[in-house]
Each structure stands twice: as C-alpha cells, then as structure tokens.
Design a protein that fits this description.
Number of strands: 7
Number of domains: 2
CATH class of the largest domain: Alpha Beta
Strand order of the largest sheet: 1-2-3-4-5-7-6
Shape: elongated
Radius of gyration: 22 Å
CATH superfamily of the largest domain: Gcn5-related N-acetyltransferase (GNAT)
CATH architecture of the largest domain: 3-Layer(aba) Sandwich
Largest sheet: 7 strands, mixed
Number of helices: 8
Strand content: 15-25%
Structural class: alpha+beta
Length: 214
C-alpha cells in the first residue's frame, strides 16, 4: 500500500477522533478520545516532518492524560436525598431535562403514583440523577424513571444506587428492582451495573437483593 496514502489515512483518522471527542457529553470520554486524536496527530506530524504540529499535539495528548488521571483518581461523594412526589424542585428538574429524558424514555410524562419512592442521587452535593419507582406489595420496586444528567453518565452512580445502597432498599422491604429500558444502550448499562434479564417480563431487567451482597 502506498506510503503517502497511509499517512493521509492517519491524518484523516486523527481529525475524525478530534471531531468525535467534541460531541461527547461525558468529560472522561471527551478527554480519552481527544487524547487519542492528538496522539495520532503528533505521530502524523512527526512522520511528515511537521515538527510544530507534532510537538503541539503531543503536548495536548499529555495534558489530556494528566487531567484523565486526576479525574479517575478523584473520589466522588454520593448521597441519597428522599423527595416528596409533589416536590416543586423535582418537577423543575424533570422539566429542565425534558428533551434528554424523552430521548431515553420516549413519551415519558411524570404522574405521581401510590407507594412511590422518589430519590435524588447527589454527587458532591449536586443533583446528578433522579430515581422514581413504585413499590409493589410483593416487595418488587418497578422503576418509572432512572435518569442521570449527561456529565455524570458512568457506572459510579449506578453502582452506588443499586449495589452500595442495597441496605437502604432492604430496610424498606424491597427484594427486587425491575426496570424495562426503552433503548438497547440503557439495557447494556443495566447489565454492567449488575442487573439480569427478567424471566417474568419480556424486555425487562431485574436486580435481586435476596441474592446479592453489598
């Protein structure tokens, strides 16, 4: 294969990575993909003897690496905040993120139900997600909405809510949480958190507390 063609291919690939990184809502993904693009541009600049391009993008890659390491080492502090179903702030939060919620859960409209469990997940004292579910008499908690704002969409909140807060749910008589995701991406996220497919409801996932330990 022609050497010049391979060099151009490397340059195009680096450009695509940089462009894709700017579309990431997650800061970790943005830094990671941008670092890969900058590193590719640095190699490209070195190979075509454009040393200023190589040095600049090498520096950008190192800056991304530094901030990635700092972000991954940083300890986030999580807390649950119980809400009244009719909370004005809850309605404001849902209205503010309405378009994003609709992309994840098309057709969602908030209507408080009986035996509702309503929680904010706070990350470093800021609302990072909202959890709304209806508790059934048999101890099953059927999730109405499990939403995390774009900047915090990683496994940390899911692990905190469903795994680390197992005792919180057990104390309230919950033996199983059931979620019926509308998208494959959300279903894949649930599996990573620890959910399994439900044999009783097609397309649903469950997390059983009588079988899992924190």
């Amino acid at each position: 294969m022609d050497k010049q063609f391979l060099l151009e291919l490397l340059g195009y690939a680096a450009s695509v990575l940089i462009a894709v990184s700017l579309m990431m809502s997650s800061l970790v993904r943005l830094r990671l993909i941008n670092m890969a693009g900058a590193a590719a541009f640095a190699v490209y600049g070195f190979l075509i003897h454009a040393y200023p391009v190589a040095v600049l993008n090498g520096a950008i890659a190192l800056v991304n690496l530094f901030f990635l390491a700092r972000m991954l080492r940083a300890k986030a502090f999580f807390q649950l905040l119980k809400l009244r179903p009719e909370s004005d702030y809850l309605r404001h939060f849902l209205d503010f993120y309405r378009e994003d919620i609709q992309r994840i859960l098309p057709g969602f409209e908030y209507r408080p139900v009986g035996n509702q469990v309503t929680l904010f997940v706070l990350r470093d004292c800021a609302p990072a997600g909202v959890f709304i579910a209806e508790q059934q008499p048999d101890g099953v908690l059927r999730v109405i909405l499990d939403f995390v704002i774009p900047n915090y969409r990683d496994l940390k909140i899911g692990k905190f809510l469903f795994v680390e807060q197992a005792e919180f749910f057990r104390e309230r008589g919950v033996c199983e949480i059931v979620i019926a995701p509308r998208t494959k991406k959300f279903g894949a996220y649930l599996v990573k958190v620890g959910f399994e497919t439900s044999a009783l409801q097609q397309g649903a996932f469950r997390f059983r507390y009588d079988e899992k330990l924190t």
